Amino acid sequence: MKFKTLFTTPLLALLLMVGAFPAHAERQKSFEFYGEVNSYDRRAGLLVVEDLVFRISEKTRVHKHKRHKAVLGDIRRGEKVGFNPRRGGGDASAPHIDEIWILPARWKGSRGYAEARDN
Length: 119
Prior knowledge:
Blueprint: H1 2-20, H2 25-28, E1 33-41, E2 46-49, E3 52-55, E4 61-64, E5 80-83, E6 99-103, E7 112-113
Parallel strand pairs: 4-6
Antiparallel strand pairs: 1-2, 1-5, 1-7, 2-3, 5-6
């Protein structure tokens, strides 16, 4: 009987601690770039966020809050998104997005780049 109590008490405490800190991607993730979608042209593979152009492809992974599955078609004008853009091959084209998070409307953060960039 004591073994059961010794095992279940720490397990319950751990579960309570995990429940106190939701594991949603948008609450744990810090983004290099955050902003509101101005437009999205799926055919051209261009996403405009805060008046800056970014490239996306069919391989771009989309995440939505509360662990709901998301796809590129879920990206809409006016939605808040966060991502970490990358430059490809040193060319002058728009930065590319490999993963993007569709954020809840209540998301708070500084729009644009989180820090000054050298490139």
